[in-house]
Amino acid sequence: MSAERLGHLRHLYALIDDLARFSGGPRRLSECTGRMEWPSRGVYFFLELGEVRSDTGSGSRIVRVGTHALKAGAQTSFWNRLAQHRGTMGSGAGNHRSSIFRLLVGAALICECGLDYPDWGQGSSATKQVRDSERALERQVSEHIGRMQVVWLKIDDEPGPSSLRGFIERNAIALLSNAERQPIDPPSSGWLGRACPRERVRASGLWNQNHVDESYEPVFLDSLKELIKKERSR
Questions:
Q1: Among 23, 26, 51, 126, who pairs with 61 as Cys (CB 3.0-4.6 Å)?
Q2: pLDDT, tens digit (0-9, with 9 covering 90-100), for 31-64
Q3: Half-sphere CA count of 47, side-chain side, radius 13 A
Q4: Is the pLDDT of residue 90 over 90?
């Protein structure tokens, strides 16, 4: 186990714990609504209950990091992105073709439960007949993701290749990922992601595909610390 990476992970979790404390604690996604006060732009961290950290301390393990609207000119708001992941309140409906997070969770459920959804993840759109046939699985996905807790940090920068949000996202994912490394805080034996057909999910222990096989820049932790300090002072 890399002592350096272990120290950096402990630092990351200490920062996220601090962020959660002053922002009201992690919020269960199923209980979040558009009426809450959301930043226009930011970075989110999902924690999955039952996924307990074993090496960096106590508490739930971060299983996904993300942001939104990184391409120049993109307009998607922070809450709209979270809502795409959560699905529709009440009905549990959702659209995995607009959320890679939903697609990955659904793919894992298909493998775990031996389900038959041949069109799952195929294309960026689908006919009404296909969408109707996928409704039951979309509800299962909404239930699974809805049980997760989310912590978020406002970073109101412009979309583009130099986005600070993108810098924080990719480095946090790279640090948390166990792909091609000795695992730190490995997923539990019952983690649904172990059934995911996407090798990067299984190898990293995250519901992420991008950046899981990259190196991280430790300096991102200093940037994250300053951003959190700035939010606390507001």
A1: 51
A2: 999 999 999 999 999 999 999 999 999 999 999 9
A3: 21
A4: no
- Is residue 148 within 8 Å of residue 104, measured between CB atoms? no
- pLDDT tens-digit series, residues 167-200: 999 999 999 999 999 999 999 999 999 999 999 9
- Distance, CA of 16 to CA of 229 (rounded, Å): 12
- Of all helices (H) and strands (E), which one includes residue 43? strand 42-52
Cα 114 from Cα 187, distance rounded (Å): 22
CB 115 within 8 A of CB 195: no
pTM of the model: 0.96
Q: Which two tokens stand for residue 22?
A: 């002053």
Place of tokens 């775990």: 112
Residues 220 and 175: their CA atoms lie apart, in Å, by 10
- Whole-number Å distance between alpha carbons of 234 and 223: 17
Tell me the residue ranges of DSSP E strands in 67-202: 149-154
Q: How far apart are CA 172 and CA 169, in angstroms?
A: 5
User: Quick one: which H or E segment has residue 78?
Assistant: helix 78-86
Domain boundaries, the chain: 3-232
Backbone angles phi, psi at 43, to 5 degrees: -125, 140
pLDDT at 1: 67
